[in-house]
């Protein structure tokens, strides 16, 4: 080998050794070998490997490349997007930074935080007591001591000697008649019982049964005859029309038998919700609801069996059905009706004889004081004081009338009035009584089915 060639090989071997030992060996592989040799020669000539490293690092940097934004990687980790494993090009880096800035501007404009689309692995726990009424089961309301009160009412009704037990709708039909006739008689007895005493209803039903109380017989009967048979039940003229209309509808639309649903029964003229539920229970032996009349409504409010005081039978029925067990719906009507007829009377209830006097909220409740008449309140009449000159200011005729009224007002110790004054006062009193007892002219009472 020639001397020039040998010196060239030695030089190349030395340069390669220095290049392999350099920490920038991996990055320098992409640089052309000729350029590296040139830079190596100049670095050696200048005498410093530090300058060589700095020159090589500056040579690899490109002035056109934009700086990579570290926040772009942070935004990717927050948004849940998968990180890219390959190196991004400058254009891709710029576009990703623009998209991130655009999303941030939209979030600031809407004043809404940038939420992550990725769902959390752990679901949110529902706290039952966070808000009142949310997530909590509403407990069924029921009055206090109602079971004790009901047991006492059963004990007081154990003899079953009330009018409803003797002459109620369950006792007014013919037990030997066909089933459809029995059901029709039950409906007629319920229609007659509205605003009528039980003994009056029982008498009317007895007279109707003697004239063959059935659908065909009522249709062939004129209104005058029907009115004579049911008189003197309450609103008997209106009930005659209702009975005729309801019987015609039963014959035409229901095949001669009463409807077997509450909706169908309410369609009949003169039949309300109370009658419909009682007819379903007695005639069809099906419990569809509580039959509420004036006794049931009054006693339920007195015992506090409703959350608030009810004003109508239908409102009372809904209030009772909310908490009262369904197996007691059939029993509660005749229990409370008989109890209201014997003990819990509409006026002057016998609270001292009632077993519920210690648990009933309305027991021994004092009635509003009534003003007594002057003759019973005090032996001497209370005359309104007048000025001393008042008698002088009147004319003689007015003075005589005033004296006569004072004498008749109850002062027995004074002189009696003249016969003429007494007769005139009696005539005025009779006129007042006659006006109070007679119904208003031009007005008629209105009948409602369940009133």
Describe the protein.
This protein is mainly α and 451 residues long. It has helices at residues 3-21, 33-46, 49-60, 70-79, 90-110, 146-156, 163-167, 179-193, 198-210, 215-220, 223-230, 236-253, 262-266, 273-282, 294-303, 313-321, 329-342, 374-377, 390-393, 396-408, 419-437. The longest helix is centred in the N-terminal third of the chain and has 21 residues, at 90-110. Mean pLDDT is 74; it is low at 27-32, 69-87, 107-114, 126-136, 366-399, 407-417 and 435-444. Helix 11 packs across helix 12 and helix 15 (294-303) crosses helix 17 (329-342). 53% of the residues lie in helices and 0% in strands. It is built from 21 helices and no strands.
- Quote the distance from N terminus to C terminus: 137 Å
What percent of residues adopt helix (DSSP H or I)? Answer: 40-55%
Number of helices: 21
Low-confidence stretches: 27-32, 69-87, 107-114, 126-136, 366-399, 407-417, 435-444
Shape: elongated
Order of helices and strands: HHHHHHHHHHHHHHHHHHHHH
**C-alpha-based Rg, rounded:** 52 Å
Tell me the β content.
under 5%
Largest sheet: none
Task: Look at the structure and give the mean pLDDT.
Answer: 74
């Amino acid at each position: 080998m020639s001397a020039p060639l040998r010196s060239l090989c030695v030089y190349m071997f030395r340069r390669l050794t220095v290049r392999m030992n350099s920490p920038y060996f991996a990055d320098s592989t992409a640089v052309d070998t000729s350029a590296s040799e040139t830079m190596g020669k100049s670095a050696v000539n200048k005498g410093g490997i530090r300058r060589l490293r700095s020159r090589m690092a500056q040579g690899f940097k490109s002035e056109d490349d934009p700086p990579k934004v570290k926040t772009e990687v942070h935004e990717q980790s927050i948004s849940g997007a998968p990180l890219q494993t390959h190196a991004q090009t400058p254009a891709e880096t710029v576009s990703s930074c623009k998209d991130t800035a655009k999303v941030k501007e939209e979030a600031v404009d809407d004043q809404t935080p940038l939420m992550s689309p990725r769902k959390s692995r752990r679901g949110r726990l529902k706290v039952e007591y966070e808000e009142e009424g949310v997530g909590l089961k509403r407990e069924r309301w029921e009055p206090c001591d109602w079971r004790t009160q009901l047991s006492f009412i059963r004990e007081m009704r154990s003899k079953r000697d009330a009018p409803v037990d003797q002459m109620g709708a369950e006792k007014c039909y013919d037990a030997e008649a066909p089933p459809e006739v029995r059901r029709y008689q039950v409906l007629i007895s319920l229609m007659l019982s509205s605003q009528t005493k039980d003994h009056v209803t029982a008498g009317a039903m007895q007279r109707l049964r003697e004239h063959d109380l059935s659908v065909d017989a009522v249709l062939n009967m004129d209104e005058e005859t029907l009115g004579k048979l049911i008189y003197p039940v309450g609103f008997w003229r209106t009930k005659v029309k209702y009975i005729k209309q309801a019987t015609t509808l039963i014959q035409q639309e229901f095949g001669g038998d009463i409807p077997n649903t509450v909706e169908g029964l309410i369609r009949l003229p003169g039949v309300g919700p109370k009658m419909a539920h009682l007819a379903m229970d007695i005639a069809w032996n099906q419990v569809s609801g509580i039959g509420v009349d004036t006794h049931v409504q009054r006693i339920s409010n007195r015992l506090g069996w409703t959350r608030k005081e009810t004003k109508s039978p239908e409102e009372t029925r809904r209030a009772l059905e909310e908490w009262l067990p369904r197996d007691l719906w059939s029993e509660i009507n005749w229990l409370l009706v008989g109890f209201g007829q014997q003990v819990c009377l509409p006026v002057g209830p016998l609270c001292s004889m009632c077993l519920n006097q210690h648990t009933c909220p309305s027991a021994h409740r004092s009635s509003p004081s009534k003003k007594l008449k002057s003759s019973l309140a005090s032996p001497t009449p209370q005359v309104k004081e007048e000025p001393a000159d008042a008698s002088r200011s009147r004319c003689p005729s007015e003075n005589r009338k005033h004296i006569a009224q004072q004498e008749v007002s109850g002062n027995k110790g004074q002189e009696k009035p003249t016969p003429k004054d007494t007769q005139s006062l009696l005539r005025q009193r009779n006129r007042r009584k006659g006006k109070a007892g007679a119904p208003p002219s031009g007005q008629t009472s209105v009948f409602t089915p369940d009133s």
